[in-house]
Write a structure and sequence with these properties.
By secondary structure, this protein is an alpha/beta fold. The protein has two domains: 12-245, Aspartate Aminotransferase, domain 2; 248-369, Aspartate Aminotransferase, domain 1. It has helices at 10-15, 18-31, 38-51, 62-72, 89-97, 115-121, 141-150, 203-213, 235-245, 248-266, 297-306, 333-339, 353-369; strands at residues 55-59, 80-84, 101-105, 126-129, 154-158, 166-167, 170-171, 178-182, 196-200, 272-273, 283-284, 290-294, 342-345. The strands form three sheets. It has a seven-stranded mixed sheet, with helices on both faces. A three-stranded antiparallel sheet has the order 7-6-11, with no helix packed on it. Strands 10-12-13 form a three-stranded antiparallel sheet. Helix 2 (18-31) runs antiparallel to helix 9, helix 4 runs parallel beside helix 5 and helix 10 (248-266) runs parallel beside helix 13. It is globular. Bound molecules: pyridoxal-5'-phosphate (PLP). Pyridoxal-5'-phosphate (PLP) is lined by residues 61-63, 87-88, 90-91, 132, 158, 160-161, 182, 184, 196.
Length: 370
């Protein structure tokens, strides 16, 4: 029987929790609590309690969050920042608008920033490295910290996809000067619209972030004391997020369970390369995405689509150095090859064990026939 498994089911995000979400909406509405209210404060406290970061600041989205981190963290004008080319354009645009120059480097077979390529890209203008904690995995941060220390670079993290993931028991987003996480609806912790948050352990940087997020206004006196933006996280979104956060551990367990199922079902197919399974050494992965590398990727994708299975090629199938016209063209052959094979399989709360088994069966069928 033909099943229908969309890559992500947006209506379900609301429909599955309709009653509770409607009650939250009414509660916030009746209180008139729209901007910078207690739900936002509670959400920020939930984030610090969960990650162990000293400070959490809700912002309008992670793209703003990254830019604000870099500005508050003292990115030097025209300083070069090393990033993986396997990231969202937002990583690079945040650097651009903060006055720096994004320098994409190769990703490795594990899809994370390749430190050897970063080494080769060093110049006397390099001031920072901003690894993307991709797909719900934290990079090997020992390696990044060693590299940054040796070369006198600041560390920022693009933790947009990684809330809850850890390296050596330390949470993504807590390693460098500051980091941003995304709360976009399809993220593991997603709200009903755009949203983001910044984490930092540095109290001076925190003070600057607070000003940058709200027009440069002193939060107590309201007086403008520096330049700033309007990048506040809506209080209604914070209220939804507090609700979803209360289920977060359960959600991560489920995602890791599905990742394990995929791993067991697919690991003998020679034509595909899988993410590392859960319970892997120093990494605690939360599987924001399950991104495989597949031979005959386009044909596989089409075959799965004919069988009702939605898949996605991340960033529309292009690494950021492949976008012509924004000045980041670079020769990154390893990433080029990887991008001809990457494919994300459905992994979210609205699929079940049978769906995953069906997807596995169809992938096996495809490679038997091809
Ligand atoms: C790696 C990465 N960085 C940055 C962003 C930007 O996040 P937002 O949409 O919240 O601005 C995303 C969002 O998908 C992302 O995946």
């Amino acid at each position: 029987m033909l099943k229908k498994i969309p890559f992500f089911d947006y209506p379900q995000l609301f429909n599955s929790y309709e009653e509770d979400l409607t009650n939250i909406f009414k509660d916030v509405g009746k209180r008139g609590a729209f901007i910078m209210q207690k739900d936002l404060e509670e959400f920020e406290a939930n984030l610090t309690n969960y990650t162990g970061a000293k400070h959490a600041i809700g912002v309008a989205n992670a793209t703003d969050g990254l830019q604000i981190c870099l500005m508050a963290g003292g990115l030097i004008n025209k300083g070069e920042v090393l990033i993986s080319s396997h990231t969202m354009i937002a990583t690079a645009s945040a650097i651009h608008y903060a006055g720096g120059i994004p320098v994409p480097v190769e990703c490795g077979k594990n899809l994370m920033l390749d430190i050897n390529s970063a080494e080769e890209a060093l110049t006397d203008k390099t001031v920072a490295i901003m690894p993307t904690q991709l797909n719900g995995r934290t990079c090997n941060m020992d390696e990044i910290i060693h590299f940054a220390t040796k070369n006198n670079l600041s560390i920022f993290e693009d933790a947009a996809q990684a809330l809850g993931s850890k390296f050596k028991n330390k949470y993504a987003g807590t390693f460098g000067i500051a980091s941003a996480i995304s709360l976009y609806p399809a993220k593991i912790l997603g709200c009903l619209g755009d949203g983001g948050a910044i984490l930092t352990n540095d109290s001076d940087v925190y003070e600057k972030i607070i000003l940058l997020r709200d027009h440069g206004r002193d939060p107590v006196s309201g007086e403008v004391i520096s330049w700033g933006f309007n990048s506040r996280l809506d209080n209604i979104q914070a209220a939804f997020l507090n609700y979803f956060f209360s289920k977060y551990d359960e959600v991560i367990l489920k995602r890791r369970f599905f990742a394990q199922l995929y791993d067991e079902g697919l690991n003998e197919i020679e034509e595909i390369y899988l993410p590392e399974p859960p319970n892997n050494g120093d990494h605690f992965d939360v599987f924001q995405n399950y991104e495989i590398q597949a031979k005959n990727r386009n044909e596989l994708r089409e075959y799965l689509s004919k069988n009702g299975i939605g898949t996605l090629t991340q960033w529309g199938g292009k690494a950021i150095h492949q976008f012509k016209g924004i000045g980041m063209d670079k020769n990154l052959p390893v990433t080029d090859k990887i991008f001809s094979e990457i494919l994300m399989l459905p992994l979210n709360l609205f699929i079940n064990e049978d769906d995953v088994k069906y997807i596995i069966e169809k992938i096996k069928d495809f490679y038997v026939k091809n």
